[in-house]
Specification:
The complex is a heterodimer of chains A (159) and B (265). With 159 residues, chain A is mostly helical. Chain A has 6 helices and no strands. Chain A is elongated. Chain B has one domain. In chain B, strands 2-3-6-13-8-9-10-11-12-7-17-18-4 form a 13-stranded mixed sheet. A 3-stranded mixed sheet of chain B has the order 1-16-5, with no helix packed on it. Chain B has a two-stranded antiparallel ribbon with strand order 14-15. Classes of the chains: A mainly alpha (159), B mainly beta (265).
Chain lengths: 159, 265
């Protein structure tokens, strides 16, 4: 009897909480709009941070290119932290979990790419940046039906 | 004002270094993009992938794409498709025979080859659907042949598609323009819905373009490319192509593909 009362009490306490959470959960278009608002300024900032990166690599100014890539990594990591805090649509939680896992790999590869450049290790830079691009494409394919613009991976932002 | 591509006999599909990368790690999957319930993809490759650093070498380009909806329903009608590739030129038709578009109309594959074999620049296949019954549209798989042509003073590619069963024959015109700005050198534009008519809906395509030929005593290539990497680099990624799918009335989706090249000195 006591156990039943406890269960009922728990239900009374939890049910409104669950209803509130469901009410707060955004729809997919709302979620995409929220994320795009976060990603747009940071995408622009990334492009500014890596401006001239391609010319630096071509001219073998690898240390300078490393500084730019490190800056891009910091912006990217901060963006992933910011967007992962946004409540997710319940129906897309599993898909988004896969997407965020890929994005976290991207942070790792960005860091490794910058490190390879700092060390002037061209072979390692070539290897890691290939993985960075491949992982980015995989991340895009996970959320392809979401229609992201600024939150999707575009290698051209890093050139 | 665009520069006529047909006369740029030495033009090269100059490959722009994007991010130098490892050749061993390929990008096997097609790049996809989606919006408003429509998902498109683009895949492609260049052959050979080992290319000289400075001098352009003959190549062939394979491109394939798909169109679908994310819930399995019929996607909207594709109004036109634009494909850009190469950089600073990239395509030569000097001395290459041309085929008038009218000669391909209502032709079977054998007839098209008999009439225009000298102008052949590519082969492939396409899949279209004819929504006679909206729940179960009739798929039509057709082999395609690409022929060198000319339209309004500019080079063009006539993509002739033929299927014996059900019997279907049509010509999809791709109009070519050279691009002076940006990462790409050549634009191919096809008014898909106007060419296919009211019923067939394009679902996928695959085409390989490339042709080596002899003109005025010299060996030429329809497409050529190089892999202009910095001295210490031997492998690099480059933006191979971008396809923009314009659906009627919406959406418009663009997909860019990056592929690797390796320096051959």
């Amino acid at each position: 009897m006591g156990r039943l009362a406890l269960c009922l009490a728990a239900l009374v306490l939890v049910a409104p909480l669950a209803a509130a959470t469901a009410a707060e959960a955004p729809t997919r278009p709302e979620y995409v709009a929220q994320l795009e608002l976060i990603c747009k300024p940071r995408s622009d900032a990334t492009q500014r941070a890596v401006r001239g990166f391609r010319a630096d690599v071509r001219s073998e100014r690898l240390a300078r290119a490393a500084v730019k890539f490190s800056r891009a990594k910091r912006i990217f990591a901060a963006t992933v932290t910011a967007i992962s805090a946004v409540p997710r649509p319940p129906a897309d939680r599993r898909t988004l979990a896969r997407w965020f896992a890929r994005l976290r790999s991207e942070i790792l590869y960005l860091g490794r790419t910058a490190a390879a450049l700092r060390a002037s290790n061209v072979a390692r830079f070539q290897r890691v940046s290939a993985r960075f691009i491949r992982e980015g494409n995989r991340a895009n394919n996970v959320v392809v039906s979401f229609g992201f613009t600024y939150c999707s991976f575009k290698p051209s932002r890093f050139q | 004002m665009t520069r006529p591509i047909a006369r740029t006999s030495s033009a090269a599909l100059a490959i722009a270094l994007l991010v130098p990368a490892c050749f061993a790690v390929g990008l096997a999957n097609a790049e996809r993009s989606g919006r408003a319930g429509v998902i498109v993809s683009l895949d492609g490759s260049i052959s050979p992938r080992h290319l000289p650093r400075r001098r352009p070498a003959p190549v062939s380009l394979t491109l394939s794409g798909t169109i679908r909806s994310d819930d399995g329903s019929p996607p909207p009608r594709l109004a036109r498709i634009e494909i850009v590739f190469g950089a600073r030129g990239g395509l030569s038709t000097a001395g290459l025979p041309r085929c008038p578009r009218a000669r391909l109309r209502n032709a079977t594959r054998a007839q098209a080859l008999a009439r225009c074999r000298a102008a052949l620049v590519g082969r492939g296949s396409i899949l279209t659907e004819v929504p006679l019954a909206p729940e179960s549209p009739l798929p039509v798989r057709a082999g395609v042949l690409a022929f060198n042509g000319r339209s309004a003073g500019h080079p063009a590619v006539w993509v002739h598609a033929y299927s014996a069963s059900p019997p279907v024959s049509f010509v999809l015109p791709f109009y070519l323009r050279s691009l002076r700005a940006g990462a790409y050198g050549v634009l191919l534009r096809a008014p898909v819905s106007r060419a296919l008519g009211r019923w067939p809906r394009l679902r996928s395509f695959q085409i390989t373009l490339g042709r080596r030929y002899r003109a005025h005593g010299t060996r030429r290539s329809y497409l050529s490319a190089r892999c202009p990497l910095p001295p210490r680099f031997s492998i690099g990624f480059f933006p191979l192509a971008r396809a923009t799918y314009h659906f009627a009335p919406a959406p418009t989706l663009a997909t860019t593909i990056l592929r690797a090249c390796r320096v051959r000195d």
